[in-house]
Amino acid sequence: METINKKKLKDTLVAYAFMAPALLILVVFVFYPIVYSLPLGFYNYSVVGETKFIGFDNFKRLFADGDFWIAFKNSCLFIIVVPILQLLSILIALMMNRKLKGTTLFRVLYYIPVVTSMVAVSIIWKFIFDPDGLINAILLRWHLISSPIQFLFDTKLALPTLMAVTIWQGLGYYMMLYLAGLQSIPEELSEAATIDGANGWHTFWKIKLPLLQPYIWFCSLISVIAAIGVFDVVFTMTDGGPDKSTYVINYYSYRQAFSILDFGYSAAIGLVLGVVTTIFSIFLFIYGKKGGGSIYE
Fold it and tell me: Which pLDDT score is estimated for 265?
């Protein structure tokens, strides 16, 4: 027994030794900034000015700030991408789950955007959506439009364009998760349904989709968190424009901190973002539990 305990202790220490570098990076660059930013929201803190405690003044200013509410509205609108992204991912996963030639290649192609830097991806899409870019060139050549579409310079089109880019990049990631879920479903269930006269649609709707609920719940949860916290695509493609139409909470917080040097106000915005994300996450978590969205049930 003593030998077994020593071996367990040794294995535990070895495991922590391997995890130590990653844990150290997380502590320094993730956990410490989060903890440090919590009290910062209650201070008037600037690199060039005097730091003083101001209580809830940053939050009072925030709720009276029109630009913040524009950013808040756009962050909430970004959640629209979640059901679209999940539906498309499930459909692609169903196609990739078939035993056909070339499916492995297509899986790799769909997943490449996931492992590609979002900044690099955004720069490429910025050129594609440019008035002189590929999409406008094709549409003009086919005489589908008479003048270039201002995808990134029209206040009504800029935000939907950014949403489309995030959907494109996220498809491969969620497709792989749903593909794993589909491959975990026993083939005997589908075969029994087919023998009983069920077609492909009934098999999917009555058997596969209910068994995918834990995956749908999990993917929706992390997709909502990512949608509310979107930043890089906005920063790279539109820089909040045109006319603040693509302001989101994360971008507005960044702008207050590094353009205006109002770090206290930026921290207050970050705290509100954390609260909003938590509320949406709790809602989805409760909904998932009620709907049987647990892998362990």
Answer: 93
| Residue 272 pLDDT exceeds 70 | yes
Exposed / middle / buried, residue 174 (Cβ in 10 Å: 0-12, 13-18, 19+): buried
Q: Quick one: average pLDDT of 183-199?
A: 80
d(CA 210, CA 85): 18
Q: Which helix (H) or strand (E) holds 201?
A: helix 200-203
Decide if 254 contacts 231 (C-beta within 8 A).
Answer: yes
Instruction: Kindly tell me the sign of the dihedral angle through the C-alpha atoms of 117, 123, 128, 129.
Output: positive
Q: How far is CA 2 from CA 42, 120, 146, in A?
A: 53, 55, 82
Q: What is the pTM of this model?
A: 0.86
Sketch the domain layout of the chain as residue ranges. 1-40, 57-290
Architecture of the domain delimited by 57-290: Orthogonal Bundle (1.10)
Exposure of 124 in the CB half-sphere (CA atoms within 13 A): 10
